[in-house]
Task: structure prediction
Amino acid sequence: MKMSEENDLRIRSIDISEGENRSPNRAMLRATGFKDEDFKKPMIGIASTWSEVTPCNIHIDKLAIKAKEGAKKAEGSPIIFNTITVSDGISMGHEGMRYSLPSREVIADSIETVMGAERLDGLVAIGGCDKNMPGCMIAIGRLNVPAVFVYGGTIAPGKSKEGKDIDIVSVFEAVGQYRAGTIDKEVLRDIECHACPGAGSCGGMYTANTMASAIEAMGMSLPGSASNPAITSEKLDDCHDSGEAVVELLRKGIYPKDIMTKKAFENAITVVMALGGSTNAFLHLLAIAHSVDVDLTLDDFERIRKRVPHLADLKPSGHYVMHDLHSVGGVSGVMKLLLEKELLHGDCLTVTGKTLAENLSEQPPLKEGQVIIRPFDNPIRESGPLFVLRGNLAPEGGIAKMSGLKIKKITGPAKVFDSEPEATKAVLDDEIQAGDIVVIRYSGPKGGPGMSEMLSITGIIVGKGLGEKVGLITDGRFSGGTHGLVVGHVSPEAQVGGPIALLKNDDMITIDSETQVLSVNISVEEMSNRMKEWHEPPLRYSRGVLNKYARLVSSASKGAVTD
Result:
């Protein structure tokens, strides 16, 4: 821990708040409402991801105001500023999805830029949609000023006309059902119109809820932040208390690098495995770890997976959503259970200034009789459902989520496509049959660029009844809502000459979650001959944000970082 000199909490803002030479700097802030007394207090940035482009973030302007009130009450001088968001659900399935993962870097860069330029002393970052959370956390790691992350909260479940709980994944799968003829256009429209009833992030254990849970487990959010729903008094209190907490962190000299240790990341991975979270957790936790110089690798995920059971019956493969989990004790209740089983490091420091164990001692356990979190003697799986697969198709690794699947292995002929739209058309036109392995390449961090999520095509495959009959591998990635016999993050990617670039139609591919192998049945000699004939294609974009991203980004196996 670092302590500020002479208890002055203005660890950076003193650059502008003292001395006659800084009169012009202060004059600008006076125009925004600052008074003499405000310059004597620490300046707290409230990074808001408010936007009307997605229900995940539509309410965050109000949450930012509550965080500002909390920071002001704690004798800080808070300033709200905004950054971007993109909606993964809206950008899914077309060219817009190329911008999704790069938006994580834009968010991180923009928060770092404002905090650095304005010399703000502490940070409350509030995120909703998928890339907000890792973007905020990467910025927090780079800045290493006292900070708290607040999750905007989950959406309430929608209701179909039959009274069934539905969500955004229900709509993607309904498209496949419609094309398969199992539902009509009226039912499809009903699902579309009622899946998303208001503000908040997608409701299952998809990427937003996964990352919120991981960040709380890491100690960077207040207890309860991950599972308090979007439109509740608890979420407003969460934001107000976070504003107060960041000023207290300044007083105590507690910085993000004091909290985000290797053991804290192990806690985050443990919770993700127990909840059956999104494969995107691999990308984002690796990138956040990079921002604080913690040595985290795919091998750490695999080591932890083997000792942590999958306990949560949550969508996409289960029955319940985060709103349901909140009602029985939330993520804090799950963590309390994991701590009792000695699966968490209870001595890790958190943003409350207390250890994780101290925080959890003050939280209630999961409710008696609840059925969402299974007991340890009857887990969904004996070990975590998120696998690292390796083999001659993925020397650096590929990631699979095998929760809820009866089929653990598939071998079949490759059907190779150089883009998701081409593959989607083939599925819709019934060109993909049971037993096939769909290959979608040139979709990686560089080749996409942006490593597109593929919820659209996987939702259609499931909707057509092929979820356990067709395999899919890609150097792109999947939404947290994806389930099925799918492997993403295949590394090295096609754009840099990874083995996936060398595949041909009807090559026999094996996906085996039991042996954790992803392989193609061709000889080393044949692979070498194909490599000699391969030529790196030009980047898809010659300028703009996607060109910059493609030139800078690293492998998915390293978190697709750009610095």
Summary: The first strand starts at residue 43 and ends at 48. Residues 233-252 form the longest helix (20 residues). The chain has a mean pLDDT of 95. The CA atoms of residues 403 and 530 lie 35 Å apart.
